[in-house]
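Hi there,

I know you've been waiting on this one. I reran it after we fixed the sequence typo, so this is the corrected version. Both the input and the resulting structure follow.
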Amino acid sequence: MIHGAPRADLSLGKDLLGLEHLSAQQIELILDTAEPFKEVSERAIKKVPALHGKTIVNLFYEASTRTRISFEFAEKRLSADTVNIAASGSSIEKGESLVDTARNLEAMRIDMVVVRHPASGAPKFLAERIPSNVINAGDGWHEHPTQGLLDLLSIRDKRGTLAGCKVCICGDILHSRVARSNIWGLLKVGAEVAVCGPRSLLPLGIEELGVHVFRRPEEAIEWADVLNVLRLQLERMVAGYIPSLGEYYRVYGITQQRLDRAPKDLLILHPGPMNRGVEIDSKVADGPHSVILHQVTNGIAIRMAILYLLAGGSPRSAQAARPAGEDRA
């Protein structure tokens, strides 16, 4: 959710903690603000002064490559000063609490904290206790809002609209914070959403969120315009969720053979990291309908937009950064 009531002009409040409680207008605001920031990454000098003088801390209690680097790129392209803190090798490893860590950072007069944490609700807990802006970079099994937003932007780029689009999220829905952010975000903007996976990897009562449920990937492929393929989060599993990786690939893997029988061309998304030969075939991941690398590029623009809006930036000022006459694809 956006922590703090949004103003009438739909500017964001203090924090970005999830997509569950955002309005469609707030989601569109973020997507639209990201558009002019795409161009910044194409410049010879990839930098604008929007956050010059701001200090942002990336506080990661879990391992991350794409999300952490994407946030760091976004921060530096907005001219912010950035500090990266990982749990390993810091006072966190010695038992320092989340709040004590944050309060010590606050004493250094920081402006924003980007936090990834294995406990669901940790970013909200932190946001309620410090005055700095807090951005959720993934919390437990709860949400990964910036990934959800970049997925929405990637679909909108390729299809022109999200309203009426049929998106099926395939794989390990049970353990996926990406799935939850996608479901809430997509439904808000008028897309139809489905999930597909073994019953053991679907949350109980998933249908109550307003999504279709498919038992086999063939059914999902026949229905969908977009497949968002999730990896098996083996690190969150104890035992017994699937018979074997080979059996999962045989029954639920998104393969070229399955896509060849689709009634229409599908967009293929994956939030990464990919387990090739488990949830997705390399021919699909690297094929003409894959937008996986486009998602990575969009991740920087989305995170630039969120940082900019939370810092009080005007969407109109962001639009002014785009060269004259450029329209959204």
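Quick highlight: Residues 2-8, 323-329 have pLDDT under 50 and may be disordered.

Best,
R. S.
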